Amino acid sequence: MIEAYSLWLAHEIPLLIHSGFLKGAPLLWAAAGGAFSERSGVINIGLEGMMLTGAFAGAAVSWTTGDPWLGALAAAMGGGSMGLFHALVCLRWKADQIVSGMGINLMAMGMTGFLLERIFHARGNSPEVPKMPALTGSDASIPILSDLLFPLSPLHILLAIVILWTVYLFYHTRFGLRLRACGENPSAAAAAGVNVGWQRCAAVGLSGVLAGLGGAQLSLGDISQFSVGMTNGRGFVALAILICSGWRPLRAAGACLAFGCLEAMGERLQSVIPALPSRVLLLLPFAAALAILSLRRFSNRPPQALGKIE
After folding, report:
1. Which helix (H) or strand (E) covers residue 37, if one does?
2. Mean pLDDT per 10-residue interval, the chain, length 310 residues
3. How far is CA 181 from CA 3, 206, 250, 252, in A?
């Protein structure tokens, strides 16, 4: 009995971790993007709209050209354009950052629905588009490692590289030092010769690029089509995870993986506990996130100049 249970765990745990990484990847793209914007001092609740724009742009270009790599590039550009628009509204025109972010979310929802009918001549869902090729493990001698790592899309490999690059950029480069200075004390940063406006603009634009790639992860990596509202609140969840992690990219990565594992566990429990409604089990990760938000004592303060534009 114990041996059978151990074998079951050895099989299920790698699958759960792998599923958690797949489900947490879009959140991690958005959380990494949000880290750039918020550590520079600009609140970005428009991550949802940037993800949705990226998901649609990626699907549209992949369908038009037949090349998912061009689709991923278009997703990055679409999310980046939304990020730059947010930066223009907040930094140039000094609009309320919360209102601007909500406006981006609403604009992306309406715009993608309208363009879906114009480009694909469909409502609700687009036709199937070319998706990123899946990378599969070829070494059958290490089945657990194969279950943990594969199958993946190239965007998953890129995501792992981006997270390591983000951590290095934040804490080991002059750009990262200036970025964090703009979020903590923009007056002191300006006195040291930093162009705070351009630094923040670059950070918010990069935030949109990463969130757009998170959208591409959904439409070109996970499935092969665009659906209206397919981000399904992931941008807001990513922002909540970022806040819980103290605006630190590496902590956010672990939190996104945990959230993805809880989501995968909820799906697996549907077959184990058929008596419970499926929607109740799918609420598991969101309930856990709410519990953490309400019970955790935040030891990490936000950037001092977050939301303040002089």
Report:
1. helix 2-39
2. 48 70 91 96 97 97 96 97 97 94 96 94 92 67 50 87 95 95 94 94 97 96 91 91 89 88 76 68 72 60 86
3. 55, 17, 19, 21
